[in-house]
Structures are given as C-alpha cells and as structure tokens.
UniProtKB/TrEMBL annotation, chain A:
Subunit organization: Part of the multisubunit transport protein particle (TRAPP) complex.
SMART domains named among the record's database cross-references: Sybindin (SM01399)
Keyword tags: Endoplasmic reticulum, ER-Golgi transport, Golgi apparatus, Transport
One BP term from GO: endoplasmic reticulum to Golgi vesicle-mediated transport
Record localization: Endoplasmic reticulum; Golgi apparatus, cis-Golgi network; Golgi apparatus
Similarity comment: family membership: Belongs to the TRAPP small subunits family. TRAPPC4 subfamily.
The protein's name: Trafficking protein particle complex subunit
A GO cellular component annotation in the UniProt record: Golgi apparatus
Pfam assignment, any one: Sybindin
Signal peptide: none
Source organism phylogeny: Eukaryota, Viridiplantae, Streptophyta, Embryophyta, Tracheophyta
From TrEMBL, chain B:
Protein name: Trafficking protein particle complex subunit
Family of this protein: Belongs to the TRAPP small subunits family. BET3 subfamily.
PANTHER family, alphabetized: TRAFFICKING PROTEIN PARTICLE COMPLEX SUBUNIT 3
GO cellular component term of the entry, any: endoplasmic reticulum
Endoplasmic reticulum among keywords: yes
Record organism: Coffea canephora (Robusta coffee)
Subunit structure of this chain's protein: Homodimer.
Pfam families in the record: TRAPP (PF04051)
Length: 141, 186
C-alpha cells in the first residue's frame, strides 16, 4: 500500500527541527538525517536560482525509482517534506494538514522556542493520527 | 493540483473555535494592569506590550498563512489589505480599513472602528502616556518580519485618548528576502 516513509521539517536557516519515521524502509540515524536536511535545504535554494522561469518557489516533487519526495515551503521559510512510496497521491494536501498541525501544536506551545528542534508530544501524537487516517483513507479509495 | 483558493476572513472566523469576548477583554486587561504594577513606568509598559505582541506575531503568521491560504502578496498594498480584511477578522472578529497611502506605497494607516481589547476600558489620568493596545502593533511588526518585511508600526489615533477611532500607521522600512549566501564566505 502506498505509504509515507518519513517526515522532515526544516527551519528557515536549513536546520532540521523534526524527523519522524513512519515506515521501516530507509530509517536513518540523527547525523544522517541532519546532513540530509541541510542538503535538501541547499538544493531547494539552488533550484530557485536555476529555474528558467522567474519567481520559482523551489522543488515541490522529486521522483525516483523507489520513492517520491514531496516538499512544501511556507511563506515563512519553513519546509515540510515527506519521503513516500512512488505514486502516492494527495501528499500536498497531507503536507498542508501537517503545516496546520505545526501551527497548532508547536507554535502555540509557549515553551517551544522558535527555530529549535521540536519536542512536543502532542504534535507527535496528532501527526501519527493524521498519518494513520491517511493510510485508512487510502485503503478505502 | 490546482492551488487552493484563499479563504475570506468571515469564513475562517466562522470555522475556528472562538472564546468568550469578555474573557478575552478581561485577560488582556489583567495583563496590562499587572505590567503597570510590576514596571510602574508607562513607557516601559508600552515597550513590554510591543515585545509581547512581537512574540505573538512571529507565531501567529504561520497560523494565518495555513488557515487563509493566501498566496504571496504582489506588493505592500495587497499586504495591508490582507491584514485588514482577513487577518484582523480571523483573530479579532473585526475588520479594519486601509487609508492614507503615501506616494511610494510604503506607508499606510489601518483604522479600527471596533476593538474588542478596549471594551469597558477607560484610561485614568495617571496612565496618560499608555498605548493600551500596543500589543497589536507588536503583532503586526512580528508577523510581517517573518515574511521578510521590516516595518515600523505607530499609533496615530487612540480612542482611549479621546480620538474617534484607532489608527495605526504601518511603514514598510525594508524588504529583506532570504537569499542563499553564495558569496558570503569569500
């Protein structure tokens, strides 16, 4: 079944603030995930400069043999990207939903420091629920 | 996938959970009173309210963007309209009007006829220099800073000081887009 492998959230300076595995494929340790996030941040920025079309907002979709990578960047510079099975549908809507969960459970937590790694249990729980719901909905389609 | 259309302020206001207006007014009043007791100086309280507003604004902007689906504004005029019609409506339940544009289009006034923060409030003589709603100027400044706009927000008219409406002047000082520092290391 098409499913999400992992979710990354990068702050506006390119630092990884959240990483979660939802599938068993491609699990990474902390250092690798940090490195990958900075790589993605740089590639995303470079793609905006490389674009032949003016006012490009960066890479939204990367398709490879064994995975798809969907990326959403908010107007504040925070990037949300998921690595999922090739051909998974409705990832943009799911990313927007994750953005809303971020604005609720992370930003409204007064003890969360901006741009720092996210350590909010409620956020983890609500994300897991959203991923679960998406899987169930997918089975139903 | 076609881009999602931006939602109107009314639609979002109707869809979010709302709180009792009096509780909101009372809570804000308690904050201002406590600040006056702790800091004693009216200027200090103004500064603190602005700082608190700034801290709220930097977080509020993401919620605003997530719920309203607005796309990047073309110019500062569009930004001001969006703040007045969607932003204020979404968070305070009231709309503001945008007036007094200068020649370059970088300074305007946001006019509020109705302001839930000041229901039942009267300023005593001992607090004459106080900008009671200064948290609002901080919120706008903080929110715009997170989308690469450095602004200065000042109060022109204040109903608690005898004027007929609340008027904030928003001045765009600088647009600071996030640029990839290609040549920084050399």
């Amino acid at each position: 079944m098409a499913a999400i492998y992992s979710l990354y959230i990068i702050n506006k300076s390119g630092g990884l603030i959240f990483y979660k595995d939802y599938g068993s494929a491609g699990r990474m340790d902390t250092n690798d995930s940090l490195r990958l996030a900075s790589l993605w941040h740089s590639m995303h920025a470079i793609s905006q400069q490389l674009s032949p079309v003016p006012s490009c907002s960066g890479i939204e979709l990367l398709q490879a043999d064994t995975f798809d990578l969907h990326c959403f960047q908010s107007l504040t510079g925070t990037k949300f990207f998921v690595v999922c099975e090739p051909g998974t549908l409705h990832m943009e809507a799911l990313l927007k939903h994750f953005y809303e969960l971020y604005t609720d459970f992370v930003l409204k937590n007064p003890f969360y420091e901006m741009e720092m790694p996210i350590r909010c249990e409620l956020f983890d729980i609500s994300l897991a629920l959203a991923v679960q719901k998406d899987r169930v909905a997918l089975l139903g389609r | 996938m076609p881009p999602v259309a931006p939602r109107s302020g009314d639609a979002i206001f109707a869809s979010v959970e709302r709180v009792n207006a009096e509780l909101f007014t009372l809570t804000y009043g308690a904050i201002v009173r406590q600040l006056l007791t702790d800091l004693e100086e009216v200027e200090e309280v103004n500064k603190q309210l602005d700082q608190m507003g700034y801290n709220i604004g930097i977080r509020l902007i993401d919620e605003f963007l997530a719920k309203s689906n607005v796309s990047r504004c073309v110019d500062f005029k569009e930004t001001a309209e969006v703040i007045a019609k969607v932003g204020f409506k979404m968070f305070l339940g009231v709309t503001a009007t945008v007036t007094n544009w200068d020649a370059e289009g970088t300074t305007c006034s946001l006019v509020l006829e109705d302001n839930p923060l000041v229901d039942f409030v009267e300023l005593p003589d001992t607090c004459q220099g106080l900008y009671y709603c200064n948290v609002l100027s901080g919120v706008i400044r903080g929110a715009l800073e997170m989308v690469s706009m450095k602004t200065e927000v000042t109060w022109i008219r204040d109903m608690l000081r005898g004027d007929d409406a609340f008027e904030m002047q928003v001045k765009l000082v600088k647009q600071v887009p996030e640029e990839y520092p290609y040549k920084d290391d050399e």
